[in-house]
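User: My notes are a mess, but here's the protein and adenosine-5'-triphosphate's SMILES. Can you give me a structure?
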Amino acid sequence: MTPSSTQAPLVSLRDVRFAYGEREVLRGIDLDVHRGQVVAIMGGSGCGKTTLLRLIGGQIRATGGRVEVEGQNVGELGNAALYALRRRMGMLFQFGALFTDMSVFDNVAFPLREHTELPSGLISDLVLMKLQAVGLRGAAALMPSELSGGMARRVALARAVALDPMLVLYDEPFAGLDPISLGIVGQLIRRLNDALGASTVMVTHDVNESLEIVDYVYFVSEGRIVAQGTPEEIRASEHPFVHQFVNAEADGPVPFHYPAAPMSSLLDRGVR
Ligand SMILES: Nc1ncnc2c1ncn2[C@@H]1O[C@H](COP(=O)(O)OP(=O)(O)OP(=O)(O)O)[C@@H](O)[C@H]1O
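Assistant: No problem, the inputs look usable. Here's the predicted complex:
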């Protein structure tokens, strides 16, 4: 138990359900994020991780249960209150693309210009501080096309935290990165969280990288939380699902094969 876990959690989901039309993708989710924590949500493709992040970010509303952020029931907020809450969240969605026609500096300045009335001198100082924090102050004048994939992701991190959010949400922050950039981005996620005194939720497939930097992990399968724990608990877990994930085994509770009739029933019958 971390010291922060004695306070009410910053994010709390209770018996949360969500369906796209008739199709239920989340079923009875209970999840807490305590202040100061970095929490990972992991699971196979299509299990509902991004949907979970979008519920916390208030982009969609739960069809059942309760999603609370800072004690507010996100599903019941009106537009103004939801906007005010979201203004205090930093988000980096899948592949967090930069605006290609703006410099690195202008990309990071964008949320500050959109959401604040700060004078340009102060915006400039804040942007340079964020870029310094991700090691790219010297790249302020470059265009996105001049950056490596790892640098672009670091600029996207700086942009996500430009407004000093209390909660940062990352969807697949490691996607497409080489191993060195992956390590750098992981360490930055941790450092930015701690420097801001924020809390972080990240959806990711990268188990080993995540276990290095997070405080707690939730594993989702078929819309349910099937396992959870600290990195130490996860590494020691005998749970078959966790074991398959941590050891990158091709088959296990998460099947390699998409459901299909047995091969033997199809062979020699001309069925494809
Ligand atoms: N807008 C939508 N309308 C209908 N179904 C959707 C929609 N968005 C997602 N889904 C379905 O809901 C399920 C959960 O999607 P979600 O994106 O949350 O999964 P995920 O775990 O983030 O997957 P991945 O790791 O592949 O990004 C998937 O089966 C997906 O096909």
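The mean pLDDT is 89.
User: Great, I'll file this with my notes.
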